[in-house]
Amino acid sequence: MNIKTPKDLLVFWQSCHGNLEVKWHARFMGDSAILEILNFPQHQIEVAVRRNVKLKEILNDLVNQEIARDEFKRKLNPYFESFEDRGLPDKPQISQNWVRWGGRWRRQF
Question: How far apart are CA 65 and CA 70, in angstroms?
Fold first, then answer.
């Protein structure tokens, strides 16, 4: 299923948790959490909707998924944010056989 609009999210929510009364459709689609939920990738939205019923819980689940994903990336790559934190340039400075990338000069082989 392609979830891009509040209506798509409502349809997917109903397929997971049962039909919602018609009088609640407008309130569901007008909730402020919907726009934040739709900013996340579709596969994460699907997982969060299947796990949770309430919109605030779905949003919290999506935020927790993002935090867990970033922690996983940091564990895989210890230099995940090393260049961003120190404000280092994207490319090293090169002078003949010497290279400098933010710190001291090193010999290039």
Answer: 9
